[in-house]
Specification:
Distance between the termini: 65 Å
Helix content: 10-25%
Number of strands: 7
Largest sheet: 4 strands, antiparallel
CATH topology of the largest domain: SH3 type barrels
CATH class of the largest domain: Mainly Beta
Structural class: alpha+beta
Radius of gyration: 23 Å
Length: 127
């Protein structure tokens, strides 16, 4: 009975420690590291609220208003591949966030377009 427990324990430890390490080494040993890019498949960020302050279910594809968006960070590049973080999501020019299209990314702001209207999100200054 005790011998069986030892075998199960050794097998479990082997699976837990050896196999993941072997798999990781085969992935890294290829020589090229590819950055991980999360594909949200067009779904809502799971950290965004499901209902508004009035208790009404929010549909982020149609009910998104510009005041729901917050510019968290900006990375500006002279080569034109600037990035911004809006509500925790990394976007670049021409990306969509809700029904808004990212038009341009500046040093402290992002211009969004919805229909024929333009909106500017600005970074909040640390106090």
């Amino acid at each position: 009975m005790k011998f069986g427990r030892i075998i199960v324990f050794v097998f479990a430890m082997t699976c837990f420690f050896v196999f993941p390490k072997a798999w990781a080494e085969t992935v890294v040993s290829s020589g090229e590291e590819e950055p991980f890019i999360y594909d949200d498949h067009g779904r809502r960020d799971p950290l965004w609220p499901l209902v508004d302050s009035n208790g009404i279910v929010i549909n982020y594809e149609s009910d998104f208003v510009v005041t729901d968006l917050m510019l968290d960070g900006v990375m500006v590049s002279a080569q034109g591949d600037s990035l911004a973080i809006i509500n925790g999501r990394i976007v670049k020019p021409n990306d969509m966030i809700g029904q808004f299209t990212v038009s341009s990314i500046g040093a402290n702001s992002v211009v969004l377009i919805k229909g024929d209207q333009e909106f500017e999100l600005k970074l909040k200054k640390e106090e």
